[in-house]
Write a structure and sequence with these properties.
mainly alpha; about 0% strand; rod-shaped
Length: about 80
Amino acid sequence: MEQLTEQEASFRQIGLEFRNLCDHLREELDEFTNVVRAIIIKRNDKITDLEREISQLKDALMKVTPKGRVGQSKSD
C-alpha cells in the first residue's frame, strides 16, 4: 500500500470533517423544515377556522337583515 503524505492525510481528514458537517447540517435542515411545516399547517388550520366563522356570520346576518342588505334602513 502506498503511504499517504502528510498533506494527503490532512486533505482526507478535512474531507471527512466536511462530510460530517454536511450530514449534521442536513439533519438540522430536516428538523427546521419539519418545524416550518408544522407552523404552516397550524396557520392554515386557523385560516380555515376563520373562514368557517366568517361564513357562519354571513349566513346569520343574511337571516336578520331585509333582503340581505346591511346598514340600510327601510326609508332609504
